[in-house]
Write a structure and sequence with these properties.
two-stranded antiparallel ribbon; about 65% helix; single chain; about 5% strand; mainly alpha
């Protein structure tokens, strides 16, 4: 687990709150947290729990995973995976069986690429020096 970067999180929350045109008190009420506590989070004085971050994200109508990454609770790659899964599960145009099949395929590709993929997504499993794009 990464260390908490509370100052960065607080600045980000303040920016999101202002973009949503909410006062500190309005956001605190919507998120179900106290006004002083939310103020301390925004100023980088408090480390909020994942539950509080989830409540604040819901009130701001932003991704809780984004706040988890900002707070150091969740890795960027984990967030991307969770968001991909959430999009598949939320798609109303496919049925539950199709969603499960897509998730299985997605996971099999992640496992396949995780063992022999470089950071840039290219594969070098043929022993050559030239990187080949993975399929």
């Amino acid at each position: 687990m990464a260390s908490l970067n509370v100052g960065n999180l607080g600045e980000y929350l303040r920016e999101q709150r202002r973009n949503a045109q909410l006062s500190l008190r309005q956001l605190a009420d919507a998120a179900g947290v106290s006004n002083p506590y939310l103020s301390q989070i925004e100023r980088g004085l408090r480390k909020p729990s994942a539950e509080v971050l989830q409540q604040v994200a819901k009130a701001l109508r932003i991704s809780a995973e984004t706040l988890y990454v900002r707070a150091g609770i969740l890795d960027e790659r984990e967030r991307d995976e969770l968001e991909t899964r959430a999009v598949i599960l939320a798609d109303p145009s496919i049925n539950e069986r199709q969603k499960q099949v897509l998730l299985q395929i997605y996971e099999s590709f992640r496992k396949e690429n995780g063992s022999d993929a470089d950071d840039d997504g290219t594969r070098m499993d043929d022993g050559s020096d030239a990187a080949q794009p993975s399929v």
